[in-house]
Amino acid sequence: MNAVGKMLIGLHLGNGYGSQSGAWRMPGVDPKSYTSFDIRVKQAQAAERGKFQFIFLPDGPGAVMTDIETESPVFNLDVMMTLAAVARETQYIGLVATGSTTFNEPFNLARQFKALDIMSHGRAGWNAITSSGEDVAANYGKRIPSSQDRYGRAHEAVQLIQSLWGSWGKDAWIHNQNSGQFAKKDQILPINLQGKYVGSRGPLYIPPSEQGQPIIFHAGGSPNAHQLAGRFANVVIGTAFTIEDARAQRNAFRAAAKSYGRDPDEIKYIAGLMTTIAKDRRTALDRRIQLGGSSLIQKFEYLQKMLGIPLDLSLINEPILELQLENARPSHYPRSSNALKIARQGWSVLDILAHGVIDYHPVIAGPGVEVADHMQAWYEAGAADGFWISPDVNSDGIDAFVDHVVPLLQERGLFHKEYESKTLRGHLGVPDQYGIDPRV
Amino acid sequence: MNAVGKMLIGLHLGNGYGSQSGAWRMPGVDPKSYTSFDIRVKQAQAAERGKFQFIFLPDGPGAVMTDIETESPVFNLDVMMTLAAVARETQYIGLVATGSTTFNEPFNLARQFKALDIMSHGRAGWNAITSSGEDVAANYGKRIPSSQDRYGRAHEAVQLIQSLWGSWGKDAWIHNQNSGQFAKKDQILPINLQGKYVGSRGPLYIPPSEQGQPIIFHAGGSPNAHQLAGRFANVVIGTAFTIEDARAQRNAFRAAAKSYGRDPDEIKYIAGLMTTIAKDRRTALDRRIQLGGSSLIQKFEYLQKMLGIPLDLSLINEPILELQLENARPSHYPRSSNALKIARQGWSVLDILAHGVIDYHPVIAGPGVEVADHMQAWYEAGAADGFWISPDVNSDGIDAFVDHVVPLLQERGLFHKEYESKTLRGHLGVPDQYGIDPRV
């Protein structure tokens, strides 16, 4: 059983508040959510109620506190500890976290993700990325290696980790109390890999999980990312602002998979989507204005560049004049065309900004049906196999999605109504993996 | 409030079965305990019922599977994931795990132990050790560095990690939704440490816990261990087979603390103790014979060396003749004197071995009162501030200790009857730590 033929949905589980920087101040939000594992668990449970296939925890241990005076950090205290908490208090939802190959020892990554896989009874996934920020490197007292070295190490690390995960055969663990045989030693083999960057003798001392071993995610869009994901990943988290761009990205990853001799369908392209769900567009925009505070105004300059026209800050509550819009030339910034489209609908400059035209992913601010329509359009256009949802505020934004978007998608036959499986591989239609993949 | 004036007790939480290699085969033991987080949680809860101050998870990611055909691995799948599970399902007990400074990036250790400290509301401790086994190094594709380099790196790593833990001031985290102030930026400072071995800019993005930050444990007995523990540790887990040896070790650590300008009482020496608790000695020995199986016979050779006399394997069920014992010369092996004492009591050779005279720590096999007597004698002789208990089989051995030893110690006024605190520092009488320790 798998989820082929339906869209996949993941939840962004980050700092506990939500994806908008003002989320921590919103009514009904516990201001201590950043350190609350109870709240993370509750949010994951809300996503499980909505039959999300996975939660996905980004990470980047760098300068996540640029505006700590007024804004919360963007990531979890520690992604693995968060997933451990969630694993014990959910039953179905997949558990995926970022773990950088640049500043982690592969053996440690292998051990921790496999332990999570055991703990969650086969629901773990690893987002294998490289670290490119000098702020991250500084926390390790190092500099960022060259792109070639980062990806060279990443390829070795993923191969090594998958080998460690597979170092016990499927039936190696006997634990027969009568015969006294604990395991079949000849099915637990060292891996003896030594590359240019990393090495390990192994074996890892952890038997297979209910899905065999975790699956590989990747997040990124460069040619290097295509190669790494094309070789190893089953899921890619992408950043695309238009259907055309998403489709091109998806095709690039599928082509990369093919170039490694894989079936392109083995790699699922997941598009990011940020949501503000309310009874109507106006209410949603007002919510985002409350959320954004002065940070919306800070984006005013950038909006002018995106549209290619000068704007007057004193007229921020007025629509842009028709005359001006005729001169607008969407810049090369990938979000420009959407910004112009919104502007042409006659919204005020502040409302244009409140639409989230400058955010990390496409934003839908409005009733649930608009979110469902967006997802359907992208999915049916071959632009995405699914979506990674970042609610504006988690405390009510996850429930809003579950109550007002999920039922529409289910009615339209686009999203499953029940979990078909108890493992992440089952949710994604990826075969269980035991031993070492002969293709690697 | 603290625990000064009473002994401290910790539980060895390892592979899920217990400290004896045959534990996984015993009646009543779930043979899948190795991969069961449910069982670890239940065992920790049993220790909490007994008011243990902490659980302690050793780790050493090397060749933990030497006899995997018949024996379980000795350690947890992953100590941090185990403690995360336990943290969510206990309320008082301290949570301590080994994390090697040799093959971990300090920033990663800092983050994960501090996240555990937040998750457990101030109950985390870190056993800061170095890795000396080539089998461990091989899993990282490396060789073991020289002792000087290992301890050099360890000193830098602990200092760096404590600095990262203290990089938020006590009151830095405001999270005031009305004023919009999330944190006091001037109380969250980079650490900018760059040593010979490791470095980090910081700050860590995690505010203080209920105890400020985790405390440092150390396990080891070399002069290097004295220095590292004397400088940083609040608790040392020791290995000593006699009161005299334990007292000497304890004094050495206290002297080392003093040499770093600390009050010697800031460092607690915890002696290891392995238990087989049964209604009488005979029943306990029979249990250990069942547990030991052929591994007891394998120790026969070593027993001859310890006693300095030849023994006849065919007479293993007979006591050693008086005439022979007169010729016995306890070897330099530290466990020899106890082995000779047991031999002189007239036990058969197999029973001598079943007493655990060759095990990793002193063994008491018998009724609870004998365990309590041992602990009282060591404690009152100044040989230990407390004990790290390794039951033979966890499934019933923890409860046996809680039901048959703890009440005796409490009646004798040697052990607390209730938790005085909800933090590990509180349990150990160690002051909360905020910011960076000015003495370091």
UniProtKB/TrEMBL annotation, chains A, B:
**Single GO MF descriptor:** oxidoreductase activity, acting on paired donors, with incorporation or reduction of molecular oxygen
Keyword line? Flavoprotein, FMN, Monooxygenase, Oxidoreductase
- Keyword Flavoprotein annotated: yes
Domain of life of the native organism: Bacteria
One Pfam family name is: Bac_luciferase
Residues annotated for FMN binding in this entry: 59, 98, 151, 222
- Gene3D superfamilies, per the entry: Luciferase-like domain
Please name the InterPro entries in this protein's record.
Diverse_substr_monoxygenases, Luciferase-like_dom, Luciferase-like_sf, NTA_MOA
| Record domain Luciferase-like: where | 33-383
The yes or no answer to whether the keyword Oxidoreductase is present is yes
Tell me the NCBIfam families matching this sequence: FMN_nitrolo
- Report the family membership: Belongs to the NtaA/SnaA/DszA monooxygenase family.
Q: What is this protein called?
A: Nitrilotriacetate monooxygenase
